[in-house]
Write a structure and sequence with these properties.
3 helices; alpha+beta; about 240 residues
Length: about 240
């Protein structure tokens, strides 16, 4: 006699299969993210290899996805500065200081590093229109869908949207990337620049292991349940 599975058994099987597929898909996605992130880190390592003998950046050759280390020189424009954030550092909330640098007929945004001070309290206003050289890492910034929109009317900046910043600050012909400065020819009372080497978080291997482990445990638990049910059906009934 053929034993047909009950509706509840069939539904349970579908749910378990869907859960297993979802867990494996999450694990595979994290493996892909791991490969992508390791590619970025390799590019960063290659860029930082030139820190000791940094050369002038060829600003016209940097493409989206590139990471280039070198120096630039231009006219410092603190009157167009802004704070981008918030960002936590050592348990304190602050922002990144962004100051435009005029290079011939173009402008480049310089990330000077983290600060918890207000814009008007920073030691930058007295160096208006001074020629300064900055050395650091240049790359195109990005943000995720959870980043709030900028509020230029309130001078609140959350996204490093170069085009929007240039429009609001009246910056002509801005380069489509930011220089994350690590050194400067001018000493801003030893406060700036304070950027360290940038590396993105890379926890994707741990996440992949977690999701694949969950999928494996789901299979084990399903096997245990199926085995116990079979044993229950095969056990002889108790005699009165």
């Amino acid at each position: 006699m053929t034993i047909r599975p009950s509706f509840s058994t069939l539904l349970s099987s579908i749910v378990i299969l869907a859960a297993f597929t979802a867990l494996c898909a999450l694990g595979i996605w994290q493996v892909k993210r791991l490969a992508w992130k390791e590619g970025i880190i390799s590019k960063l390592d290659a860029a930082y290899a030139h820190t000791a003998d940094s050369a002038p950046l060829d600003l016209t050759s940097i493409q989206p996805g590139d990471y280039s280390y070198g120096w630039v020189e231009g006219i410092f424009m603190p009157d167009k500065a802004l704070l981008l954030g918030p960002r936590t550092r050592e348990g304190r909330i602050g922002n990144d200081l962004i100051v435009p640098l005029k290079i011939k007929d173009r402008t480049l945004l310089i990330n000077m590093g983290w600060t918890d001070a207000a814009l008007e309290d920073l030691p930058i206003t007295h160096v208006q229109d001074k020629k300064i050289r900055f050395a650091g890492l240049a790359f195109t910034p990005s943000w995720n869908r959870f980043t709030p929109d900028n509020d230029p009317a309130q001078d609140l900046w959350f996204k490093p949207d170069i085009q929007e910043i240039a429009q609001v600050r009246g910056l002509a012909n801005s380069f489509p990337f930011i220089l994350y400065a690590q050194e400067a020819s001018y000493k801003f009372d030893a406060t700036f620049p304070n950027n360290t080497k940038y590396y993105p978080n890379n926890n994707h291997l741990q996440y992949a292991i977690f999701w694949f482990t969950m999928a494996f445990l789901l299979l084990i638990m399903t096997g245990i349940v199926i085995t116990s049910r079979k044993r229950g059906r095969s056990s002889p009934p108790l005699k009165a």
